[in-house]
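Homework-ish question, so no full write-ups if that breaks the rules, but can someone show me the predicted structure for this set?
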Amino acid sequence: MTDLPERAPEKRLGLVIDLDTCVGCHACAVNCKEWNTGGYHAPLTDEQPYAAGTDGIWFNRVHAFEAGEGAAGRTVYFPRSCLHCDDAPCVTVCPTGASYKRAEDGIVLVDEDLCIGCKLCSWACPYGAREYDASAGVIKKCTLCIDRIYNENLEEVERVPACVSTCPANARHYGDFNDPDSDVSRLTRERGGYDLMPEMGCAPTNKYLPPRPARKGGEGGDEVLADAESPGGVLGWIDRLLSA
Amino acid sequence: MNPAPSIIFFTTVSGMGYGMLAWLGLFGPLQLLSDRPGFVAPAMFVALLFIAAGLVSSTFHLGHPERAWRALTQWRSSWLSREGVAAVVTFVPALIFAFGWLFIGEASEVWGLFGLLASVGAVVTVYCTAMIYRSLRAIPNWHRGMVVANYLLLAAASGGVWLNAMLLLNRIERPFFTAVVLALVLLAWLSKILYWRDTAEPAGVSTAGSATGLGRLGRVALLETPNWEANYLQKEMVFHVGRKHADKLRLIAHFAGFVAPAVACAVIWTDVGWMNPVLAILAASSITLGLVTERWLFFAEAKHAVGLYYGVDQV
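A: Not a homework solution, just the prediction itself:
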């Protein structure tokens, strides 16, 4: 049923993504692709992989933004994947029942066997979380690695989404937002985790942590340089020469 | 949004069919059209053909057309599903009404009731089509009531223009119906002008700042996309090509979709004898071309929020 669960899900599993520590290495995206091309939605088809016009399904994509201007501006790497929204419009628009939100843990999934490939769910999602696999004729999306997080064949420490397990900067955190003591709840509380596009009314589960303010002395780069004291010796001579 | 030809064909052609059916089902029982089989048979046939052709074409863009029947199951939550159910259900009274009118020669009394039901079904189906788009918050251009007015009025007007042509081809003069159609074309034009006025500037519902949450740091600009070549999201929802000729296409939509049919209807209403059917055919061809252009723009000009992650500043 494409109705959303009547009761709030018992667990609300999701991710916290720390934009302060993300270094934009794309490892999360690559490991996501690697795991999921053999997982629930296998394969994550690539079209023209070795030629011009290459295209393919990725559940996780890393963008780079410039935020702020001048010396206060900064580069922020921005991983984007399904937010497993509480009020998921991709689920309610589905005409076939292929899209659903699980009552037990809030994960939003697509049943490929029911999907007719009308793409309307990808239109309904403001976040671009759903991609169409033209060769399979169905929509595919992030599963929060249901085939890892509940997989008893894996070591317990590995029962986290592929993107989380691989992040070398520890910028991705996984857990239950309904548990106030979980890492994700605590980080969201302490670091001011926020929703993307709250105005869209989707009530996303995943939260993003804002970049921390610049360290003291980090501001006003140009002025700091202008005031730099001139050293003695050869370097001082070069400094005086260039300052003239 | 990328305008898929099958969706443009479906929404325009089945819209015209439902417009025709709505007028046949309403004005047939009221004896305001004509019982002449030379009119009734082709009119009902063309209306149902347009509807059926549109519905079939709408399955062409599906990845799995053979599973299309599943789309009838989620009417409780999905407007697309409701549209499918309404479309199928409407065929029942429409076919009964057509049978009564054609083979029993009776369009009123109990047969007329089926006509009215078919008429209501046609309106409900087009309303559901419009609500598919109107309900998408991710596309602020579409998330407005005027979209529903556009779809209903355009279907009613274009169906009316076609029906008027079929009446006049049979040399059946119905100045009252011609006047109704003229009024509808003008109303549809007004609703489209209002839509274009309201969407001339981005609503600013969402920005790159709110999409990333980085607006708190100042101006937010895309530095790098995740991929070098366009992915599905960009091809489907960050579609720019159609906007290149938007001004010229809009002129065509204004003229062919509204001005020409309105002038033709006005002239027909004053009665220019043998020119009536010629003008009516021209009006029907013109509004069809205008509608296809209008529908192309409806998709091509709509900006999806996901564009904010690919260099668009606001939607």
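Now go work out the reasoning yourself. Hint: The radius of gyration of chain B is 21 Å.
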